[in-house]
């Protein structure tokens, strides 16, 4: 980090200040927004009532399944609300609760987590960072140490998911599953593009990558899709 240190920290904090925004969130390039996203006014009011403690995560849902599902022992407060013609549901939990899954205890993220701007600045001003990854590492460490943003809000209608294809590599085990970076490069160079099917969303049970990847040929109908393994076989033959 010392070798790569530049003005990223200064630019981030200057942008937050100059925006004049009461609330703010970060959005990195590995997030997939698959539906129109509305931040409920009631969520902003809750954040404003205790800005050092409360934040809103837009990329979680109480409908997640598998390893990401909320366990029955975890305490959840459900908050129904009506805004205009929309009937919605927030849920709130405590990241300090003992025994909750690791996924639900992260109090700081650079991916679609809404903070009150001044509280966010108070946290990150003392954190050394030079890229989003070190910002998240340092921010999470200090938020836990200072007990900030430990009361987390989520929405039942999740509209954002991680699409971390940038971590694909075969050197260590990770969320890449069995997707080959060389194969993906080959597909791209031959005019194939990745898409996500509507029926994979929004009740998806994955957080960072779907279990299956689908591709379409540039210039062809989007209705003609080929699954990853099938496309790999086609190239092999």
Which secondary-structure class do the elements indicate? Answer: alpha+beta
List the secondary-structure elements in sequence, H or E. HEEHEEEEHHEEHEEEH
Rg over alpha carbons: 20 Å
Percentage of residues assigned to helices:
25-40%
Strand percent estimate: 15-25%
Largest sheet: spatial strand order: 1-6-3-7-5-4
Number of strands: 11
Overall body shape? globular
Summed up, the helix count is 6
- Low-pLDDT parts are none
Distance linking N and C termini: 45 Å
Q: Report the biggest beta sheet as strand number plus sense, adding barrel if it closes.
A: 6 strands, mixed
Average of pLDDT: 86
Provide a descriptive summary of the structure in words.
This protein is 26% helix and 20% strand. With 237 residues, the chain is α+β, with helices and mostly antiparallel strands. It has a 6-stranded mixed β-sheet. It has a 3-stranded antiparallel β-sheet with strand order 9-10-11. The N and C termini lie far apart (45 Å). The model has no long low-confidence stretch (mean pLDDT 86).
List the helices and strands and how they pair.
Blueprint: H1 8-19, E1 23-24, E2 31-33, H2 41-49, E3 54-57, E4 77-83, E5 86-94, E6 113-116, H3 117-124, H4 132-145, E7 151-155, E8 160-162, H5 181-189, E9 192-195, E10 214-217, E11 226-227, H6 228-236
Parallel strand pairs: 3-7
Antiparallel strand pairs: 1-6, 2-8, 3-6, 4-5, 5-7, 9-10, 10-11
């Amino acid at each position: 980090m010392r070798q790569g240190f530049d003005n990223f920290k200064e630019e981030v904090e200057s942008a937050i200040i100059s925006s004049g925004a009461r609330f703010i969130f970060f959005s990195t390039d590995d997030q997939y927004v698959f539906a129109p996203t509305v931040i409920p006014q009631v969520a902003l009011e809750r954040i404003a009532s205790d800005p050092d403690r409360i934040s809103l995560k837009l990329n979680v849902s109480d409908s997640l399944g598998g390893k990401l599902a909320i366990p029955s022992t975890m305490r959840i407060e459900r908050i129904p609300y009506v805004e205009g013609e929309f009937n919605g549901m927030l849920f709130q939990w405590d990241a300090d609760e003992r025994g909750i899954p690791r996924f639900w205890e992260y109090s700081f993220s650079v991916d679609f987590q809404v903070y009150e701007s001044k509280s966010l600045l108070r946290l990150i001003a003392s954190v050394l960072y030079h890229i989003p990854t070190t910002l998240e590492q340092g921010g999470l460490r200090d938020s836990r140490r200072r007990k900030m943003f430990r009361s987390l809000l989520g929405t039942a209608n999740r509209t954002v998911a991680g699409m971390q294809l940038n971590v694909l590599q075969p050197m260590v085990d990770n969320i890449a599953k069995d997707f080959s970076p060389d194969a993906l490069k080959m597909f791209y160079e031959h005019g194939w593009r990745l898409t996500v099917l509507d029926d994979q969303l929004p009740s998806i049970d994955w957080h960072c990558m779907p279990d299956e990847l689908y591709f379409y040929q540039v210039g062809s109908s989007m209705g003609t899709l080929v699954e990853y393994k099938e496309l790999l076989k086609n190239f092999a033959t």
